Amino acid sequence: MSFLFFGNCQLEMIARALSARNPSAEIIYRGNSSRARNHDPAGADQAMAAADRIVSQPILNANHPEHHTTLRARLGARLLFLPYLWLDGLFSLVEARQPPDRRIIGAQVIRKALAAQSRDDILARFAAGEIAFDHASRLRRSLAELTRRESFCDIGATDILRAGLRERPLMVTHNHPAAEVTLQLARRLAPKLGLLPPDPDQSDGLHLPVATRVLSPQTTRDLGLTFPPDPDWLAQGTALIDRIAKA
Fold it and tell me: E strands, the chain, where?
């Protein structure tokens, strides 16, 4: 059988996890945007037509030609949706590295502070853990939005994140899950596709890159995290605050 994974890097990692124990299955990944690897609209259309099963992420933009309702109507029972994981608040600041924007998630907090104080004052307050990054409220809103998006999906992920995100680093950036999360989602998906699940300790090739991010002592305190902050949080945060101040 042939399986098309049509989405972003999160689905690419799940496809890779399932390929290891299912060598006889034809598992293909195609990116669903120019920011993803293997983005080939014409090739993706051909792969969709040929695949026995398609795994994708629901697009909620009603004007997009591959809006989730359109794709569901077009592909029917061959299609399974997994949610796109995007969590704000786990990091004070984190760089979205995809071109063309390279924006900084959480920059609005620093811009607001810069309206009243100098860059040097902001850096001093950041080092002292005195800037109100609103980690908890940002994370709460993100989890609520993820739950809403899961209503369009066949596989959920919110429970995985809620159960472990305070004990273990389940996200390495705002939208790059750790290999542990990838493996849990692959195990949930495997029986729905008639595939063997990945080995529990499989992790080779499943590590998405870590961007410039700020996981500071303040982050761990605000969210009640039981794992340590990044050792380079001050340098990373200073670099991002400098970029925001100069923009």
Answer: 2-7, 26-31, 53-56, 79-81, 94-95, 104-105
Beta-strand pair 2-7/26-31 = parallel
User: pLDDT (tens digit, 9 = 90+) per residue, 151-210?
Assistant: 999 999 999 999 999 999 999 999 999 999 999 999 999 999 999 999 888 888 889 988
CA distance 166 to 160: 11
CB-based contacts of 211: which residues, under 8 Å, 6+ apart?
Answer: 94, 95, 96, 97, 173, 176
- What pTM does this model have? 0.91
Q: Which helix (H) or strand (E) segment is 13 a member of?
A: helix 9-19
Give CA–CA dist 67/73, Å, rounded.
10
What is the DSSP code (8-state) at residue 86? -
Q: Report whether 155 contacts 197 (CB < 8 A).
A: no
- Residue 27's SS3 state is strand
Residues, the chain = 247
Query: Rounded to the nearest 5 degrees, what angle is found at the Cα of 212, between the Cα atoms of 210 and 217?
Result: 100
